[in-house]
Design a protein that fits this description.
The protein is α/β, with parallel strands linked by helices and 294 residues long. It is built from 14 helices and eleven strands.
């Protein structure tokens, strides 16, 4: 794992001097401890990226806002926490937030730790998704919303007109500069984002533009981009990186690694949470958090 991470990060972040003393936040996918070894970013990648950055003098932290439980508890469940503690890497729970205004005028409570870092390193996991078809680089940055903001956005913006996806795309412009390293070692397919089926993809993918990373991954996975709501939203917004012709591949081209048996849902479920589900999950989150602080 270390050589692969070194090769990607050396290509993505060639200026070692710029990393010296930089405040870097790693944003993995720490959705939940339940089935975490498959549903979350591989612990080896999180630790290897942290170690690589520390070796170049960066000040590194890890943060996320899991759907259930705390970031620390999920990191412990997937085996990453002891190594991060030995490296002296703190964990941010994304409970403190700063309200920003998106281009559309919509307000968003983003994690202070995500907004105040010098470099945001996005560490998503390749997964099928029952609502968004696939969760890749762009979707993982939704986790920069703090606390109960994520389920609340599902409630109030999850209509069928695409507004939820459009707002996720708007979030990209508010976040600090960074790069993405995608965990495609053991992906999740058929459904997701928690209870899918393991798929031995065996790759790491990197890039500086999350939209471009998603476009390349959709091609690699054999997924028609027009089926993906977030790709459509990026296209509607006129963002760069939605066509393969715009992209360059200094290491390997997606065609060299393409697969044709990665399965995503045929039909997508509603994005909007019903009121009962919202209340039930909110109580569950509060109980988990209370249990972890005892």
């Amino acid at each position: 794992m270390e050589p692969a991470v070194d090769g990607l990060l050396t290509a993505l972040l060639p200026d070692d001097q710029a990393l010296r003393t930089a405040k870097v936040l790693l944003k993995p996918n720490l959705i939940t401890a339940r089935n975490g070894l498959l549903a979350c970013t591989d612990s080896r990648i999180i630790v290897a990226v942290a170690r690589w950055l520390l070796a170049r003098g960066a000040r590194v932290a890890v943060g996320d806002s899991p759907s259930f439980g705390s970031a620390r508890a999920v990191l412990a469940a997937i085996g990453a926490l002891p190594a991060l503690q030995r490296l002296g890497v703190p964990v941010h729970e994304f409970r403190h937030r700063k309200e920003i205004v998106l281009a559309s005028g919509q307000k968003a409570g983003l994690a202070t730790a995500a907004l105040e870092c010098d470099l945001l390193v996005n560490l998503p996991k390749v997964k099928a998704h029952s609502q968004m078809l696939a969760t890749l680089a762009v979707k993982n940055l939704f986790g920069c919303l703090a606390g109960f903001q994520k389920p609340w956005w599902h409630m109030v913006h999850g209509e069928s007109d695409g507004r939820f996806a459009d707002l996720l795309i708007e979030l990209l412009a508010t976040l600090p500069a960074g790069c993405t390293v995608v965990d495609g070692v053991t992906a999740m397919h058929r459904t997701g984002p928690v209870h899918g089926v393991p798929y031995a993809l065996g790759i790491l993918v990197g890039g500086v533009d999350p939209v471009a990373v998603d476009t390349a991954l959709l091609a690699l996975l054999g997924i028609e981009p027009h089926r993906c709501p977030l790709w459509h939203a990026a296209r509607r917004a006129g963002l760069n990186g939605t066509t393969m012709e715009e992209l360059t591949f200094p290491l390997r081209h997606p065609a060299d690694l393409a697969v044709r048996d990665f399965v995503v849902p045929e039909t997508l479920g509603p994005i909007r949470f019903n009121l009962f589900r919202f209340i039930k999950n909110s109580i569950k989150r509060a109980l988990l958090r209370a249990g972890e602080t005892r």
